[in-house]
Every structure is written in structure tokens, then in C-alpha cells.
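Incident review: delayed structure delivery

Summary: a single-chain prediction request sat in the queue longer than the usual turnaround. Root cause was a stuck worker, restarted by the on-call engineer. No data loss occurred. The affected request and its eventual output are reproduced below so the record is complete for anyone auditing the incident later.

Affected input:
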Amino acid sequence: MSSKFKVQSSKFVAAAALLWLCGTIAFGQSPKGGKTGAAPPAPKVLVTAARADVVSEPRTFVGTVKPIRHSVVGSAAAGRVEEYLINEGDAVKAGQPIAILRRGIIKAEVDSARANLVMRQAELAEMEKSFQEEVDQGQAKLAVAQAELAFRLGKLQRSKSLGTSVSRELYEEDSSLASKADASVHEHQAAVRMLTQGARQMKTEQARARVSAQLAELQRLEEQFDRHTMKAPFDGWVSAERTEIGQWVMQGDPVAEIVELNEADVEIAVVEDFIANLHTSVEGRVEVPALPNERFVGRVAMINPQADSRSHTFPVKIRVQNRIENDQPVLKAGMFARVTLSVGKPTQCVLVPKDAVVLGGPSPMVLLAAAAGDKTTVRPVPVQLGPAQGSWIAVFGDLKEGDPVIVEGNERVRPGQEIRTEPKEVAYP
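Output delivered after worker restart:
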């Protein structure tokens, strides 16, 4: 036998041994015929039975995305634009300055009014302090006079009670001093009345009035000063610039346009045959051709009771929660949209929980837990989506009532894979 033949025979034997080893390992056996560890168990999923119900037939309407609020911000005062702080497309917050007019003169008037207010307040404080001191002094003098009067009246009374034992001269002196003390009391009472009810009190009230008038004047000027700054009325985005630095604007002239798009409205026209089936709790699916990978669900927010006289359609707004990405709204005003609403005739259909619907492929899909002999495997069923009923949604495809659909774990299994199932209750509206 040649050496070449021996080498080829050795290669053949080695290859055969390798193939046998791979085969035994693939079948879970060791080279000596013993078994390796058992195969991993089938994954467990949660399933819910599909339900049959009568829902209104869906109808699709075309519409346009619109902001829920659109404001043309105007100038509250006349003047020259000194600062213009925004650009189209910028996000703004409520109260954020948009443009500022020249305000040097009005600022000087505000400062002057504030200084005058400080002066008036100081005058009033000084007058009130001195006034109170004078009142306290007058009341103290009155108290002394009243005490003197009481003493003199008491002494006069004692003189009367002694009778002839007291000389007439001493009695007349006590009487005269009592009359003098009484007159002093009346004098001090009049002085206190003049302080608290007379001209001095009126002057103090006039000082208080001057302070109030100056405060009102300061508030008026501050309001005028604030009018020289235009601010965003709500959170939103700048959709148009209507002026520029150096331009003169009159009161009421537009400065900028702001739109609110944290939520958006899709305005559609609904024919009168379907309008009776609409109300503000109806949900619908919103599709935007410009955003093919986005899915939106909207709710009827407004039904105009006045139809268009030519088309006999009613304007309806579907409110959609927008998504903000890179500080910009995904749904933008003016985009074309299609809205599917349950407004047609009632139709018998199958509903499944929304969690049972698998998106991301060419079409929506529902995964069934299908019995195959003594095993349960995954069977995909392509479907078309219908109207939603709370956490459930109508689907149209090869499904029937009672079919076990996978609601949890459907992202971890593949078609034809063996699975273990466990039921899950999903509340039905």
C-alpha cells in the first residue's frame, strides 16, 4: 500500500469519527452512548380567550393636523422693537419674553413714581408718629386735669361737711379751685377732640390718600412698562415671526405666532349619516402617512353642531397626545392624517386584548396558543385592526371566539415553537 493511500485512509477515518461524534452530541448522547442533560423546558406564556361582540363598523376619514391653540401675539403698546428674542421653530414657555420695545422714558417715569411713593410714605409715617405722640400727650394732660378735679371736688365736699367750723374764705378758695380744675378738664378734652377729630386728623387722612394715589400711579406706570415686553401666552412653538429689531409697531400690531402642539387635533369632516354615532368618549386610530412607523390613538374632543351648508358634513376634532423628540413635536400642524372611527352599522366581530397585538411587521399579528397533539405551539394570525373598546380591540382575521391568544410573553416566542400556557384574566369593558 502506498504512503499516499495510507494518508488518505487516515483522513477518511478521522472525518468519519468527527461526523459520528457530532451526530451523537446533536442527539443528546455521549460518545459512549450515555445521555447528556435534559432539553430546556418550553417557555411559559399567558393567554386570554378572544371574545365576540357587536361593535360599530369602522369608517376612515381624512383630515389635517392642527394645533389645539394658535395665538397671534400682538403688541400692547406702540414703540420701536429693541430686542427680538425668538426664531421660527423655537420652543417657548408661558410667560417667556418674545420681544421688547424701547422703554427708557417709561422706565424713568416708573422710577420717578416709585421715589415719590417713598417720599409720600415717609411723610405719612412722620405725621402719624408725631400725631400719635401729640394725642398721647393730650390724653396724659387730660388725665392729670381729671385727677386734679377729683381732688378739688373732694376737698370742697369736706369743707361743706364741716360747716361753720371752716372759715368762709377757705370754703370760697376750695370752691374756686374746684371750678378751675373743672375748666382745665374741659380744656384738655377739647384739645384731644381737636387732635382726633379736627384738622390734624383730616391732614393725616389726606396724607394717607396721597400715598394711595401715588401707589395707584406707580402701578399704572408699571403696567405700561410691562406692556413694552411681549410674552408667550402658553407653552408652544413659534410658527411665524411678524416683526424684527428696529421696526416700529403700533398697539395691536402682530409680533409673532405661537402654536401649542403638546397635544394636537386632527380635524375631519363627518357626513351626517354617521354624526349621530359620535360622542366625546369615542376613540379612534390615527395614521399619518408622513410618519409610517408611528401609531396614535385619539379621542373625539369636539363635534361642531353646525354643518357645512354645501357639503353637509360636520367638523369634528380628534385630540391626540403628541410626542416630543429633540425638542420638536412629531405631529406638526398641517400634516395629512387618516382617522378610523366606529361610526358605521353594528357588526359582529372578535375582540382581543391590546397586549395580544404584535406590531412592527408588514401587518399587525396575533399569536395563538394552538394545540398540536399533546403539545401546544405558537400559530401567528395576521389581522386587521378595528375599533378599540377600552383595553380590548376588534380584529379581523382567522380568529374566532374562545381562541387562546397570547397576551404576555409573545415577544419571546416564534411561530411553531412549543410553549406552556397559563390563563390570565383581562377585564372587559
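Verification: Confidence is low (pLDDT under 50) at residues 1-35.
Action items: add queue-age alerting; document worker restart procedure.
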